[in-house]
Design goal:
Layout lengths: L15 H10 L3 E4 L5 E5 L2 E8 L2 E4 L3 E4 L2 E7 L4 E4 L5 E3 L2 H18 L5 H4 L6 E2 L18
Parallel strand pairs: 6-9
Antiparallel strand pairs: 1-2, 2-3, 3-4, 3-5, 5-6, 6-7, 7-8
Amino acid sequence: MKRMFFRREQPKNPTFADRIESLRKAGFTTTPQTGGAVRASRANCAVDLKEENGTVHASVAGMAMGSEIGALVDGGFQKFFRTPSGKDRPALAGDLQALHEFEEDLKEALGQESYYNQSLGTVSTFYLYDRVKDRDRGVPKRVWE
């Protein structure tokens, strides 16, 4: 009789349904969306999740604003949330803290890695500073023109 002393356990790759179930167990609310996506939300934070090639891909996490998700934008002078339709709302300190905790808990529940630089605090999705407006379009129009 042969025995294997160093037997490795086969890694388990959970299905998309298993990952969504783990989100529910972690206290997230999951809602089906069009196109096979699932919206995971908790308090005012939300993210759309979709399965692609056996892995879970998340859209940009942000604040739920009506039926849309507002992405965090850093305007240089202030952070705010902007939806795809163009609605803006200022980001308060409590919103940033809630969004950071939401993203960290989401990664943990999905079994994804949490990177050091992202774990330090909230990372903006877009950076729009006034001083670089029209920077990529050649010479900007002068005020007197």
